[in-house]
Design brief:
single chain; 40% helix; 24% strand; alpha+beta; four-stranded antiparallel beta sheet; Alpha-Beta Plaits
Length: 327
């Protein structure tokens, strides 16, 4: 039996610039961090040659190619695993539609566990590339590439996406007190709704291919990621709140469903209570709201968002890991 643990992520700046419709023309950059919430994948030997997969439902099929879960089916095909395995997965928080990169974390964790099951070590870069291959090409998901690299590498990183499909991951190295202060200032609230990112990202990609305003706004989001990276490396977190606010105003116009009336009301209430800036995590439409506020304004922000469930997240430095091996 093999168990992998793969962290979820919080995207701070630059989301959308990791879409192929943008980075293949202009290059992209995303600043993100993994958090202390994870997806766990277990791979074990099955007593027969069939395949059993347990997630929100359970499948048992005689051949790997008959698995309905697309990510599992394509991962088994990529690694040439025909059968004789049982795969299960659980997560620390709702597994889909929360804006924390759970699908890619699952894919990276599954690949890591399957490689380990066959006695191989897969480095982070390989896991990220294989996860992108499965999600974007084999499954045809209209998503970007940031989540796979965040899950595989872990930590607080600036991830740059180049037109030639290469990706650079640069660790943010800043004074520990600055990083600690940033964590102390962040607040996270669950909106109570989840959504599929595919439709939003498909619309966003279509606009990037046809509208100059979408390209211009996404270029500006990329600039925010680069500027925030420089600020953090210098230990200066003071500009980040205002930058988050400006970036959110840009992002919410990139697709029709990124925000809605309830999200807008909650965001405005948090700002009125003292938050400096914030954003909805992930593609939009639901999931988690993040705010940056001075610690002395946290209680007023909490009171203003009394109808939402606060969910504290801490930064995590690790990427996908094998945490249990039993032969």
């Amino acid at each position: 039996m093999i168990i992998s643990r793969t962290p979820l992520r919080v995207s701070l700046f630059g989301g959308g610039s990791d879409l192929p419709a943008f980075y293949r023309r202009h290059g992209g950059a995303v600043l993100s961090t993994t958090i202390d919430k994870s997806v766990y994948v277990t791979v074990s030997r099955k007593f027969d040659d069939a395949v059993r997969v347990s997630y929100s439902r359970t499948e048992e099929v005689s051949r790997a190619q008959d698995v309905e879960h697309p990510l599992v089916r394509e991962a088994l095909a990529l690694l040439d695993i025909q059968g004789g395995v049982e795969i299960t997965s659980v997560a620390d928080i709702p597994a889909r539609g929360t804006g924390l990169g759970s699908s890619s974390a699952f894919t990276v964790g599954l690949l890591n566990a399957l490689h380990a099951y066959h006695g191989r070590h897969a480095p982070a870069d390989q896991l990220a590339k294989e996860a992108c291959l499965i999600e974007l090409e084999r499954c045809g998901e209209p998503i970007g590439k940031q989540d796979q690299y965040a899950a595989a590498f872990g930590g607080l990183n600036l991830i740059r996406f180049h037109a030639d499909e290469t990706v650079d991951v640069t660790k943010v190295i800043c004074p520990p007190d600055a990083l600690g202060e940033l964590q102390r200032r962040l607040l996270f609230f669950y909106t109570g709704t989840t959504r599929s990112a595919s439709a939003l990202l498909a619309e966003q990609s279509a606009k990037l291919a046809s509208e100059e305003s979408a390209l211009s706004d996404t270029r500006e989001l990329t600039c925010f990621a680069e500027a925030a990276f420089k600020a953090l490396c210098s230990g200066n977190i003071e500009p980040l709140g205002a930058m988050l606010h400006q970036a959110w105003r840009l992002k919410r116009g990139l697709a029709s469903g990124i925000s809605n009336e309830a999200i807008d009301l909650a965001y405005d209430a948090a700002l009125a209570a003292g938050a400096e800036g914030g954003k909805l995590l992930g593609a939009g439409g639901g999931g988690f709201l993040m705010f940056l506020a001075p610690p002395e304004r946290h209680d007023p922000v909490r009171a203003a968002l009394g109808g939402l469930r606060e969910t504290p997240f801490a930064f995590a430095s690790h990427g996908s890991k094998i945490i249990f091996v039993h032969e």
